[in-house]
Amino acid sequence: MALPVDNTSPDNLSLDNKFHPFPSPAKLNLFLHVVGRRSDGYHELQTLFQFLDYGDTLEIKATDCGKIRLLTPITGVAAKDNLIVKAATMLQLEAQALGQANLPGAEIKIDKILPMGGGLGGGSSNAATVLLALNALWQLKLSTEKLAALGLALGADVPVFIHGFAAYAEGVGEKLTPRDPEEYWYLVSKPNCSISTVSVFTSDDLPRNTDRQLAQSADIDACHNDCQVMVIKHYPEVAKLLSWLLEYAPSQMTGTGACIFSRFDSKAEACRIQAQLPDGIESFVAKGINQSPLIPVIKALSLN
Ligand SMILES: C[C@](O)(CO)[C@H](O)COP(=O)(O)OP(=O)(O)OC[C@H]1O[C@@H](n2ccc(N)nc2=O)[C@H](O)[C@@H]1O
Ligand SMILES: Nc1ncnc2c1ncn2[C@@H]1O[C@H](COP(=O)(O)OP(=O)(O)OP(=O)(O)O)[C@@H](O)[C@H]1O
């Protein structure tokens, strides 16, 4: 006689009924060159990514109810537009395609400390953390390459967070070559303005023809951020803060702004300048790191 089929739990779901913490670090673009524009409007970049030992924390619990629930909404971002929910929903479809009997679900909380629209890649990092974490919790066993390809549809910065190594990036930021830049201390300061990535990439003032270079020969000190030219012209808050910071340390914008990172040899020196920042400037001090703190957490979970 055939045994009754238990459909209450998806095949491989790890239901330990507890929240697991996962880091979701920030990134810096140590340089960012715009080297061309594709026919679909996206820009071809050459950029050097490094992570910071600073970022959001997500707590994720696998469930078998088929629902994705974000228990801590982010002010100003509707749940359906939140990259956390989008990433989880995208992975549910993959679970379905793998033939799991029931749709897996998840409850997710976020402690959001990264400024939004700051060029630190917070939204992309959150999406990457969800993809890697749920791949492990739902035991889907999708490859890193597959997760990076899925993540690219959510944002150009997602693949580097999935791979988790500092990298020289080309294409729209998805063709990655591992690099090992010096791990300096950074003071990251946010001018009092938010800059949308789209507005920078659609501006007539964005330089789009920086000479292409070879990945192996990219010299960080000879490089710059092409977006900074446009942003300084249109956002006086950024221009003012950048010229203040340049008095103390090499300083440059990350991504499409508005955050500026200033480089120091020691944490103490970075904190000393932080204490002197003009009133009302949001800031933090963090170390540049060449491996994302998320990767060891995922590896440990996958071994269990
Ligand atoms: C500026 C960087 O942060 C550098 O790391 C990224 O290229 C931006 O990555 P992101 O925030 O994940 O951006 P996406 O959400 O993919 O794209 C937002 C919008 O920016 C424009 N965009 C983005 C990336 C790119 N290489 N070329 C573009 O023209 C497109 O209009 C796109 O619709
Ligand atoms: N989980 C999320 N965290 C942050 N922003 C999100 C999230 N989900 C959706 N968004 C939207 O994405 C926008 C960009 O956020 P994000 O913090 O990634 O910007 P950014 O640091 O400038 O990114 P980038 O460097 O990739 O351009 C936000 O203004 C918000 O509307």
Describe this structure in words.
- This protein is an alpha+beta fold.
- It starts with 19 loop residues before the first strand and ends with a helix.
- The N terminus is likely disordered.
- The chain contains 9 helices and 10 strands.
- The protein folds into 2 domains: 169 residues, 2-Layer Sandwich (Ribosomal Protein S5, domain 2); 105 residues, 2-Layer Sandwich (Alpha-Beta Plaits), CATH 3.30.70.890.
- Strands 1, 2, 3, 4, 5, 6, 7, 8, 9 and 10 form a 10-stranded mixed beta sheet that branches.
- 41% of the residues are buried.
- α1 runs parallel beside α2, α2 packs across α3 and α2 runs parallel beside α9.
- Helix content is 29%, strand content 26%.
- Bound molecules: 4-diphosphocytidyl-2-C-methyl-D-erythritol and adenosine-5'-triphosphate.
- Adenosine-5'-triphosphate binds next to α1 and α2.
- 4-diphosphocytidyl-2-C-methyl-D-erythritol binds next to β1, β2 and α5.
**What is the N-to-C order of secondary-structure elements (H for helix, E for strand)?**
EEEHEHHHEEEHHHEEHEH
Number of helices: 9
Helicity level, as a percent range?
25-40%
CATH topology of the largest domain: Ribosomal Protein S5, domain 2
Low-pLDDT ranges: 1-11
What small-molecule ligands were found?
4-diphosphocytidyl-2-C-methyl-D-erythritol, adenosine-5'-triphosphate
Rounded mean pLDDT score = 92
CATH architecture descriptor name of the largest domain: 2-Layer Sandwich
Number of strands: 10
Q: What is the CA–CA distance across the termini?
A: 35 Å
Shape: globular
The level-1 CATH class of the largest domain? Alpha Beta
What's the number of structural domains? 2
